[in-house]
Amino acid sequence: MTVFEKLTELPELTGVVAEQVSEDMASIARGEELDLPWRRLCVLIDYELVEIVTPALLGGSLRGSRTSLGWSEKGAQFMCG
């Protein structure tokens, strides 16, 4: 392991942090990511639990496209495993 890898190594998700991450991942699954605070979203991105998906095509009164979040493979393993 290089010095850079040691500096960028993240601590394991446990306790209250893991519970908050689970709640935030569930919010994303429900499509409620717009209410997610930036600091908590950064945790999900840092741990590679979510992916930014663009564009997400919408219909009806929300016609068009927008950026959305989705679970990464690692995020699905965290939630299901």
Automatic annotation (TrEMBL):
Q: Which domain of life is it from?
A: Bacteria
Instruction: Specify the protein name.
Output: Uncharacterized protein
Task: Give the species.
Answer: Allomesorhizobium camelthorni
